[in-house]
Write a structure and sequence with these properties.
heterodimer; A: 168 residues; mainly alpha; globular; B: 263 residues; alpha+beta; Thrombin, subunit H; 5 helices
Chain lengths: 168, 263
């Protein structure tokens, strides 16, 4: 139990530092960055208490905001996807109740996990860029940036999943 | 009472979600208003300290070009010393601006609202609303300040409005950024009678108490019929190293004078 808490703290701090010190400086094609820290929301165990999970997601976003001077945009976006994670998952899997104890994102089929991660990433990025630009005039820019960043982030998340999945 | 408790219990996750989301939106809206001290900024000991550690690598990569830029600046200043007949000003009566050298620890240029973190703060005499430049030209104005660090509103920011003018005549306008390309900024509100052409130099105007007059900004790239002028920046905002913060020594005097005028 304690082991798991320490593991999560290390993951939390590690994700923040990797995001702000490395990934925020990638600037592919001069303006694309992968926001890989949302992997925390995707992988956080379902069986855990929902309130603390939402609070942790909020804190994670806020930590990113502290480093990047962006007000509360990352916190708002991350909290939102943390809140809709469970309803979205049950929608995709066509089940209202599934086994919380043993559920693992790697255990479901590739198509389903792909669409789950893609939708979650898209919503996160849309809120993120929407709040960043904060005007209806730049809707086109927001949409294009959301779309391209979503592809970049999803690709990076899948690379991480393949790299760090345990071999059978 | 019982019903209220039951209601809270039933919707407790939703209420928690709502509460935290409101907090996040509050911070966001606060960051969109210019004249407010912000709680969420990278000018604190923790974030500043992390950026300080990592900056070494970045500095090493740009060492060559940075050295070249500094040596060019030195040459230019030495040439100026030879040309100008200067008076030795022991009483500092001609001194209006003072420069504080600093380093950029963190630099964004891809977002809509870009901020820099620099390694000088209140202890070094850096305060809010001071001009930030380097030898190639304008960079921004300081925003939040802590003991040892400060954040800078880059000119690549929706909330940066800087007084700028054409170098060859004194018509002035406001500098802003449309958020598209980090190499070009926009100049608005240039009067109709002003004559200019592509390639003209734009410098800061003397109408603000933050910037000294005549700091380089860029050259005119193109302009539209409604007089929105696109400007190619002299500065490469993606690679900033050594910078200077400018203190206006007459700032308080000017502000006091303007305050008595308004009464």
């Amino acid at each position: 139990m304690n082991n798991l808490i320490i593991k999560n703290i290390v993951l939390f701090i590690g994700l923040v530092l990797i995001q702000v010190l490395i990934l925020n400086n990638i600037n592919l094609f001069e303006y694309l960055n992968p926001y890989i820290y949302i992997i925390f929301v995707i992988f956080y165990p379902l069986r855990k208490e929902k309130g603390s999970f939402m609070f942790l997601s909020f804190l994670l976003g806020l930590a990113i905001d502290f480093f990047s001077n962006s007000g509360g945009i990352n916190a708002a976006a991350t909290l939102f996807i943390a809140y809709i994670r469970l309803p979205l998952l049950s929608k995709i899997l066509n089940k209202t109740d599934f086994d919380f104890q043993t559920f693992n994102i790697r255990s479901i089929s590739f198509g389903k996990s792909f669409s789950f991660i893609l939708i979650l990433t898209f919503i996160h990025h849309f809120i993120l860029f929407g709040l960043e630009y904060f005007s209806f005039n730049s809707f086109e820019t927001i949409f294009i940036k959301t779309l391209l960043s979503t592809l970049f982030t999803t690709a990076t998340i899948f690379i991480v999943i393949i790299l760090f999945s345990k071999k059978k | 009472m019982q019903q209220i408790i039951r209601f809270i219990e039933k919707y407790r996750y939703f209420l928690l979600f709502l509460m935290l989301e409101i907090v996040a939106l509050f911070f966001t809206i606060q960051s969109h208003s210019y004249h407010k001290s912000k709680f969420i900024n990278s000018a604190n000991a923790v974030t500043g300290g992390f950026y300080k550690r990592v900056n070494g690598i970045n500095e090493f990569i740009h060492l060559k070009s940075e050295n070249l830029r500094l040596s060019k600046e030195n040459t230019r200043l030495k040439n100026n010393l030879l040309i100008e007949n200067h008076v030795i000003d022991t009483l500092n009566q001609f001194l209006r601006y003072q420069y504080i050298s600093a380093k950029v620890y963190n630099n964004n240029y891809t977002k809509r609202n870009n901020y820099l973190t620099i390694n000088k703060g209140l202890n070094d005499g850096v305060d809010t609303e001071m001009a930030v430049v380097n030898s190639k030209g304008i960079i921004g104005t300081t925003n939040s300040v802590s003991g040892n660090y400060a954040t800078v509103i880059s000119i690549l920011n929706n909330y940066s409005y800087i007084n700028a003018k054409l170098k060859n005549n004194n018509h002035f306008g406001t500098l802003s950024w449309d958020g598209k390309n980090y190499k070009t900024v926009q100049l608005n509100d240039i009067p109709r009678q002003a004559i200019f052409k592509i390639g003209d130099t734009i410098v800061t105007g003397g109408k603000s108490i933050i910037f000294p007059e005549g700091i380089l900004i860029g050259t005119i790239k193109d302009f539209e019929q409604n007089r929105l002028i696109n400007i190619t920046l002299f500065n490469d905002m993606s690679a900033l190293g050594n910078i200077q913060v400018i203190t206006n020594l007459h700032k308080e005097e000017i502000q006091q004078l303007e305050a008595t005028n308004n009464e």
